[in-house]
Design goal:
heterodimer, B: 5 strands, 17% strand
Chain lengths: 176, 200
């Protein structure tokens, strides 16, 4: 049974498409805390999230589910804890264009290990077909090595249907 | 989120900035009313000679050749540290100060011992970004400064142009208006470095 106060957390490395995914699925413009990049990240993208993204979706039965996106950089890990508190589950986005995307998945699964254990996670692989650094099977193999079974979806983070699929998959896991 | 907490502990980081703030406050200041008066008088005097100080800084900068690109950040960092030091010398209520980028990277800092500038740079940017959103949506305004008051001390976070932020830490008993005036003076000095221009 979902409640009006339920929230889903979007996390993942810089440039995975967390802000885009939340924007794609929102009817209204999300609350966004994007600022201009100044450091090395400037080479990757012009702006980055420093506090959070916030929006919501309405399910078929009218229930409102809140969506919170975290900043990607580890220096904002205090926001990870603030935002994850009381969350229903985790959507982990991983950028397949990163030099070692499987290791990135590992990092965030470890960082959110306790939260995932208490709730659940679905993994969305973004930017597939740009400069692929890993096969989808590589993520699954790593999960098997970790002794964890989580759904992994190739998605376009800018496509609302793809993001909706992730959310529905997460809700299905949580209800089972 | 114990995994994250454990990692913090392993790095030797801790969550006790408030405690450090108190100790530092006690070291720098006093509860004696006479001291308080002298402190404020000192602060007013130094504020009044602000214009002269600023012009001197500009001239020094203009004479300094900035040849290599990688040296720019070092030169800027040194100037920022100098501005922060002068602000804290002029206003003893300010027990810590930091200049960081809007995306949460520390540029220069004079913080109380034990405070990790990387963490405070990130937290400052998150705080101010949310403050900007609240003001934008409630008043369609733009943030001048964000003030957090506590029983143990206060924190201001302010924009310096579009690229940088100034965060100052003041004693609990401090005169907020006076601290703010000194911070604004420092912001003007930092703005003269024209950091925005490097990133626009």
């Amino acid at each position: 049974m979902l409640l009006e106060t339920d929230k889903i957390i979007f996390t993942g490395p810089v440039g995975a498409g967390k802000t885009s995914a939340i924007a794609a699925i929102s009817d209204e413009p999300p609350v966004s805390t994007d600022v201009m990049c100044t450091g090395d990240e400037k080479a990757i993208k012009p702006t980055t999230t420093v506090a959070m993204d916030y929006s919501y979706i309405k399910l078929e039965d009218g229930t409102r589910i809140h969506l919170y996106g975290t900043p990607g950089q580890e220096r904002f890990d205090f926001m990870w804890r603030i935002l994850a508190k009381g969350g229903l589950g985790l959507v982990l986005l991983v950028n397949n264009d990163h030099p070692d995307p499987v290791a990135q998945m590992d990092f965030y699964l470890d960082a959110f290990a306790d939260f995932i254990e208490q709730t659940g996670v679905v993994i969305g692989i973004t930017r597939i077909g740009v400069r692929d650094q890993a096969e989808l099977a590589a993520y699954q193999e790593r999960l098997v090595e970790r002794g964890q079974i989580f759904p992994v979806f190739p998605i376009d983070g800018r496509n609302s249907d793809d993001v909706a699929d992730l959310i529905h998959a997460l809700l299905a896991i949580l209800e089972s | 989120m114990a995994a994250i907490d454990d990692k913090k502990n392993a790095k030797g980081l801790s969550d006790k900035p408030a405690q450090n703030l108190v100790n530092e406050g006690n070291r720098r200041g006093s509860d004696n009313p006479a001291d308080e008066v002298e402190r404020i008088t000192h602060a007013v005097t130094t504020l009044n000679r602000g214009v002269v100080t600023r012009n001197e800084t500009v001239n020094q900068r203009e004479n300094k050749p900035v040849a290599k690109k990688e040296q720019v950040s070092k030169v800027v960092q040194r100037t920022l540290t100098k501005i922060l030091t002068e602000m804290m010398d002029d206003c003893l209520d300010i027990v810590g100060a930091m200049v960081s980028s809007a995306d949460g990277l520390a540029w220069a800092q004079k913080l109380q011992p034990g405070l990790d500038h990387h963490r405070f740079a990130a937290m400052s940017s998150a705080l101010l970004a949310l403050g900007d959103n609240v003001i934008k949506e409630s008043h369609d305004g733009s943030t001048k400064n964000l003030l957090i008051e506590s029983d143990k001390g206060n924190v201001f976070v302010m924009h310096v142009g579009k690229t940088l932020l100034l965060t100052i830490f003041t004693r609990a008993s401090s005169n907020l208006g006076m601290s703010l005036a000194h911070a604004r003076k420092a912001i003007e000095e930092i703005a003269e470095l024209d950091v925005d221009n490097m990133y626009m």
